[in-house]
Amino acid sequence: MPEEIRSERRGEVEILTLDRPEARNALTHQTYAELERAVRATTARCLVITGVDPAFCSGDDVKKVMGGGEGKPAAALTREPRLTPAAAALLSTDVPVIAAVNGPAVGWGMELALLADLRVASERARFGELFVLRGLCCDVAGLARLASLVGREKAAELLFTGDVIDAAEALRIGLVARVVPHAELLPAALALAARIAANPPLAVRRLKAGLREALDPDWQALGAWVSASLGELFQTEDHREGVKSFLEKRAPVFRGR
Question: What is the pLDDT of residues 200-210, one digit of tens each?
C-alpha cells in the first residue's frame, strides 16, 4: 500500500508532506495513522507539515472516512470517546511544528494547521471549518486554538457558518503568522524552522511546555467530549444529508434530526 505521507529530513528539520494530490490530500484512516506515527517518531528539532499542490489538506475523505453519507462505521461509534490520536501526537510533542499551508486547508485540514505552533501561508491558501456543513462539530483545535488565535466572536462566526476565508483575511485576523508568494512558501517555512532548530533544544522544549501550561485546556477531556459528540452527530439525518449533498453537488436541506 503506497504511503500517504512522505518524510524528508533536511539537517535538524523534518518535512512531512501529505501526498494524496488526486484527492486534494484528503485524510483517510491510513493518513491519520501515518501522521501520528511520524510525529511521535521524529528526532528532528523542528517539523514542517505541508501538502502536495494544489491543496494543503481538504479534510476527511468523505467516502473513506465519512462513509459517503451512509453513516459512520459501527466500530467508530462504539469505541470509548477519546482525543483523536493524530491530534494527541501533535499536541504532546516537544518538537516545534510549522504548517506550510500551500492551498486549501479545510475541515480537519484546518484543524491540522491549527495544531501547529506556527502557520506560514501561501497566497493560494484558504481556510474553513466546514464541519457544520456536514452536520458535525469540529475537533479540539477548532474550539480551543482557533478562539485563542482570532478571538471567540470570530471563531464562532467561522465555526457556525462554515465560511472559507482567503490568506489575506487569515493574516488580518491573526490566524497565520505570515503570507508569502506561493513559490516562496517552503523556503520561508524552512528558513523559520532552521532558525528554531539552531537554538538550544532543551530551552525550546521548555518554552513549548510553558506555552502548554499557560494556554492549553485539558485536551484529553475536550477530545473525549468531541468524540462523544461526533458519535451522536454521525448518526443524524442532517449529517447524511450534508455528505450526500456535497457528493451530489447540490444545496443541502437540513431538518434538525
Answer: 999 999 999 99
What is the C-alpha to C-alpha distance for residues 255 and 235, in angstroms, rounded to an integer? 14
User: How far from chain centre, in Å, is Cα 209?
Assistant: 21
Residue with cell string 489538506: 57
CB 111 within 8 A of CB 219: no
What pTM, to 2 d.p., does this model score? Answer: 0.94
In sequence order, the β-bridge partners of residue 57 are: 105
Q: How many CB atoms lie within 10 A of CB 191?
A: 12
Rounded Cα gap, residues 93 and 73, in angstroms: 30
Measured between alpha carbons, how far is 121 from 111 in angstroms, rounded to an integer? 15
- The 3-state DSSP composition of the chain as helix, strand, coil percent (nearest 5) reads 50, 15, 35
Instruction: Report yes or no: 131 and 137 within 8 Å, Cβ to Cβ.
Output: yes
Question: 449529517: which residue's cell?
Answer: 239
Residues 6+ apart with CB under 8 A from 209: 94
Contacts of 144 (CB under 8 A, 6+ apart): 216, 217, 219, 222
Q: For residues 160, 51, 38 and 118, what is the CA-based torsion angle, rounded to 10 degrees? A: -60
pLDDT tens by residue, 98-146: 999 999 999 999 999 999 999 999 999 999 999 999 999 999 999 999 9
Sheet holding 126-128, edge to edge: 104-106, 126-128, 164-166
